[in-house]
Each structure stands twice: as C-alpha cells, then as structure tokens.
Protein 1
Amino acid sequence: MKNKNLRHALLISSVLFSVLFSSCATNVGNPNVNDFGKLMEVEKKVSTKNDIYDSFGQPHDVNYIANDDSMWTYYHTKMTMSGATFVPFIGLVAGGNNADTSVMDFYFDKNDVYQKLSRSNSTKYVNQWVGIAKGVKELATDEKHVRVAAEMEKLNLPFDEKVAKSVKDIGIVAEQHK
C-alpha cells in the first residue's frame, strides 16, 4: 500500500513540477511595439512605409481604407497562465491564460507617408477551452498573412512567412482588430 501511495505522490509531484516550470510567460509578436525609443525615430508626415519597415520590421496586418490610405498593424502579446490553472480539477475547467496585448497601428496616406499612430493595450483572460475553439476558427479563416505578402511585394520589401503566420490566431486576444 505504501508503494502505491508513493507512486501516486511521485506522479502528482512530477505533473505539478511539469506544470509549474512550463508556465513561464510566452511572448508573441513584435516586442518593438513597446519600444518608445523606436517610436521617437518616426516622424509624422516625413517617415515612409520603408522607414517603418526598417524600424519595426514586417507588419502583422495591412488594411486599405478610404482614398487608398492604409494601415499597418503590429501586435505584441505576453501570455501567462492564470492561477486557476494550477488548482487540481478546477484547472481543467477554469484554467487558461492572461493575455497582455499591445496593438500599434501606423496610418499612411496614398503616397505611403506616415500620418498618425494609434496604440492600445488590453489585458484579457482566455479560458483554455474557449481559446482552443476560437483558435481553430481563427487559424482556418485568418487572411492577415495574405494581405501582408501582397503589401511587401508591392513595396519590393522582403516577406517572411514565418513572421506573418506567427500572429495568425491573435484575434483570440485582440478581437477589436479582426
């Protein structure tokens, strides 16, 4: 009986050990979103898309708006496991992640000159099961990488598919930017 209890204790402790050490923060996206030094290098009505690309790299999304104006979007998300995830049994239902997301939008005129910047930060809890369901849908329907590829080709800039697809499911935590 002691042997069986010891095995159970070892199993439970190894699972807890694995969970605790796999719960480090996960960073997704471009950390330059939060680099105010880089933002200071950008000049309104002077900097171009090429300048923004040089400072911040490839955007995560590109959208065209009225009058051939456009918007480049950059994301950065830091995910940490919520405390409920570590509670036995409850963690199976209520477990998930806390997502701290920063979104930065650069707006350009039809001549590809930078006009304004919009930044937002949000913190959101994402239940693991809801996250999986939304993630599957997002991965199947997301077209950000296609828009970015077309923009990079138009500007004759390098396109990195890995960077483009790295935020493919960002809509789970940044729903306002779908």
Protein 2
Amino acid sequence: MGIGTRARHFLLGRSAVKQHAATLAALEGGAHPPRKLLFLCYGNICRSPVAEALARQALPHLEIASAGFFEPTGRRTPAHIHDACRSLGLSLPPGSSKRVNADMVRAFDLVVLHDLENYQMFAGEFPDALDKMLLLGMFLDPPQPNISDPYISDPEETLAILRQIRDAVARLAELLTRPSGR
C-alpha cells in the first residue's frame, strides 16, 4: 500500500470514527430511541445477515433488517457461514441478498456498517444520512472500525469473525436497551 493510499485510508478512518462518535453521543444524550435498525455490509450474504439474526434475538422490540451494496440481489448465504452460525447456536433464516436504497435508508433510524469500505460507499450514496451511521466494530473491546468479511475465510477465521459480530451486537444491544437518559 502506497503512502497516498495509506493517507486516504487513515483520513477515511478518522472521518468514520468521528461520525460514529457523533451518532453515539446523540443516542447517549437522549436522542429519540431507535425503533428500526439496518445492518449493511458489502454483499448482504455474510456479516449483515448474521448481525440481523443476532440483533433480532437481542432486540425483539425493534424492527431489524439487513442489506448490502453489491448490485446482484437474490444471492444466498454461503454454507460455511451457516456452519459457523450453527457452531454459535444461531440459525439464519432463509433469505437472499438485498441492495440498499434511499427509501430503505430513510425508513431506518440507525444504519450499522461493518467496515470503512462500507462507510465510504454509504457516505458517497447517502451523505445526508451520515447522522444515522454507526460502525459495528467500534463496539468491540478494543474498538476497531473494521470487521473483516468472512466470504473467503477458512472455518476457523469465519468463526472468529462471527464471534466479533456477536460480541459487538451484544454491546450495541446493551446501549439500545439502557433506560432513558442513558
């Protein structure tokens, strides 16, 4: 990676983390509690469907959905993701990938992204909705802006990534279920 690319990546990360912090501060400051939560990743076949399923368990009172940026829709979650989910006691409902659109973004109170590439695409397509954006990896300990895409990962790495998603969704759920006044 060249110096220019590293510099752009660094600035993108700073911008994303700063926006995440602003959205989080608004939530913690008593902003309207969210009722609709959208998880976005690149293809909507690995990370975001897993986060959606976990969030449905942890936040049954909220409307939860997922989508992605990859244009061909109707794709299914790969078998190795289903296998890793079973190892965690999670079953993904049958479904297929969806492409995020402006109506979807408008309809949801919070949009949770999985990495800086997602942030860059989201900011480019939906700049007026950045105040809804959170980075799921920032709920990890230690916080990180990226949760890797397990699409081509081996089973061990896939399971590790899904554990990150599980842990981050659990911490996000804790935040969203705190009494008012957070």
Protein 3
Amino acid sequence: MLAIGAGCESRTDSRKPSPQGVALWRALGTWSGRGNSQTGSFTVETGALRLRWETRHESAPGAGRFRVSLHSAISGRPLQVIVDRTGVGADVSFLEDEPRVSYLVIESQNVDWSATLEEAVGGSR
C-alpha cells in the first residue's frame, strides 16, 4: 500500500496578498449631437480605451445610423472603427491603440447621439 502525503508538512503562507490591479478610467472627452461631427484632439497615453455611447430619438424606424472611428491627429488617417450601428442603442466599446494624439470622427444620420471616451490608468485596491 502506498502512503500518500508522508513527509508533507503543513505550512501557513505568511506573505501579504499582493494588491489587485484595477482599472481607473480618466475621461478624454464627452460629446453629443445629431449629424456628423469631429472631436478636438486628445492625447492617448496608455492605449487602453473605452467608448461609452448611446443613440436615441430615431427619426424613422431603421433610418438611424451611427459610426465612430479613431483617427491619428498627426496624419489624419483612420486607425480603427469603434462603433458601426444601425438604429437606437447603447453600449460600451473597448479598444487598444498606440499612445498618440488622436481624434474621433462621428458619422450620424437620423439619431441623436452621445459619447464619452475614457482611458484606463493604473490603480490598485
């Protein structure tokens, strides 16, 4: 018969638990409107972003469109599409990008919209 656990010692770990990392969100800008818009430039430092957005008051069912894309403020080139939505709704979109100066282009038809862009900054509990 095999004895399992023979020679094992009971041990208590006296180390303190390491602090848990948490994301703190810093607002880069809040915008709202109806129709197309381009935001002013903002500086992305960490590259971890989230866009909280909402569309409402659609003129006619199925006629609303909302599209948000991130652009380089240096070259003007589009970097990525964040949201492409038909109709009304709300969501949070997470994205990663390189640290740089950027801006958003918002294309909207037949809906009111609002958007808040935030960047994750380090923190701990």
